[in-house]
Amino acid sequence: MTESSENLLNHILAKNPGMPRGELLTLIERKKQESHGLLSDEGATRLLAQQLAGLSGEAVNISDQRISSVQAGLSDATISGEILSISQLREFQRSDGSVGKLVRVKLTDGSGQITCVLWDSTAEIVEKEQLGNGSKLRLAHGYTRLGLAGEVEFHLGSRSNIEVLSRTPATELAFSSGEVRESSHVNISPETVRVRIRKLQKSRGEKGPAWALCENEQGLTMAKFWDDNMETVLSIGEGSVITIKNPWITERNGMVYLNAGSRSSITKETLVNIESPPPVTIASIKPGPKLYTTRGVVVERTDPREIETREGRRTRVSNIRVEDGTGKIRIALWDNHAQLVETLRMGDAIRLTGIKARESSNGELEASTVFLTQIEKS
Q1: By residue range, what is the domain housing residue 370?
Q2: Would residue 311 count as lying in a domain?
Q3: Does residue 277 form part of some domain?
Q4: Claim to verify: residue 83 and residue 135 sit in the same structural domain
Q5: Hey, which residues does 141 pair with through a beta bridge?
Q6: pLDDT the model gives residue 71
Q7: Looking at CB atoms within 10 Å, which of 134, 151, 230, 322 has the fewest?
Q8: Peptide bond into 20 cis (omega under 30)
């Protein structure tokens, strides 16, 4: 039995003076057997600590739990580890009308790895801290449950807190200017970027960010504006050309994002114009993080259907197939874009600005809308 398990066992006995040590050890073995070998000594002891007299990780004040010993059903657990991957922050609407936020983080401590689901304020912390892979976190007072794929997930809720133990920048401007320009598809120097705001939308949450679909001669990119820059960019408005000093770049779920936060500044340009890049042919679209503008004729369409994402969010999706003479491509229309399919008819010519392409499981090229994709009849 590990030192942390022994400490926890002693705390349980101290809280239950009438329980013989042998009886507690028997209960631990029984828990391990009931789990069909999935529970370690530490995991079984921890689970009993939460079931006997309402003990929790906070009450017994023990060291962090190893990730390999984390099992579903814990109501108060604390882990530490290194970030392997971070998802993009997502917002959703709860049944009571309030806005929720979540970020998924894959964490490892050497003994194993686990998906951590950070909700609301803890999700905002990870997003605003600009954390990249290799950063180390301590996640305190979380709870565990089985996810949709049957894997144990570690969740941080309103009672939980997060501590940044060490920081690795999130794919920031450590690139040369050429490397950044290649990966983000906007004309970025190590210190500045100049873009035109094509579409702008404020986050449903009070603390932001404001989202923007931006463009310049190199192409399109999604941008997020935090802190004071959120109000600044909202006041500047769509159609304006801006210069951002000290931005940083993040990549989440195969998408590249331009960020402007507390260390960044925004200047509106009044004497500079940026032309919109022309649409590309369907045949030239390639999988990757780049956003494309293309146009073509609708040759297939499906009605919207409702699905549930792995985060438990209900959303809608529909599909269209578009061709332009050089090829065809299937495009998934998500969320609000799904309803647009009802306005489209076979043979309609459309222009899509800001779609993302990937290779499907059967090797076919397909595309999808993103948050601020624009779809127009042409």
Answers
A1: 282-377
A2: yes
A3: no
A4: yes
A5: none
A6: 84
A7: 151
A8: no
State how beta strands 113-119 and 152-156 pair.
Answer: parallel
Same domain? For 250 and 231 the reply is yes
Distance CA 68, CA 345 (A): 53
The predicted pLDDT at position 190 comes to 41
pLDDT at 235: 95
What does 255-316 look like in DSSP terms, one character per residue? Answer: EEEEEE-TT-EEEEESS---PPPPPBPGGG--SSS-EEEEEEEEEEE---EEEE-TTS-EEE
The two beta strands, 305-308 and 314-323, are antiparallel
CA-to-CA distance for 82 and 131, rounded, in angstroms? 11
**What is the total count of domains within the chain?**
4
Same domain, 42 and 102: no
pTM to 2 decimals? 0.55
CATH number at residue 186: 2.40.50.140
Residues 312 and 356 in one domain: yes
Same domain? For 79 and 162 the reply is yes
What confidence tens digit (pLDDT) does each residue in 235-244 have? 999 999 999 9
In this structure, the number of other CB atoms found within 10 A of the CB of residue 341 comes to 19
Q: How far is CA 123 from CA 34, 75, 93, 161, 353, in A?
A: 34, 19, 15, 10, 29
pLDDT computed for residue 183 by the predictor: 37
Kindly report the number of other CB atoms within 10 A of residue 270's CB atom: 8
For residue 37, the tally of other CB atoms under 10 A from its CB is: 7
- 55 with 71, same domain? no
Question: Is the domain of 68 the same as that of 161?
Answer: yes
Residue 274 lies in a domain: no
- Residue 226, SS3 per DSSP: coil
Top mean pLDDT of 56-60, 144-148, 186-190 is at 144-148
Do 373 and 324 share a structural domain?
yes
Is residue 275 one of the residues assigned to a domain? Answer: no
Q: Check if the beta carbon of residue 244 is closer than 8 Å to that of residue 263.
A: no
Helix axes 3-15, 21-34, angle to 10 degrees: 120
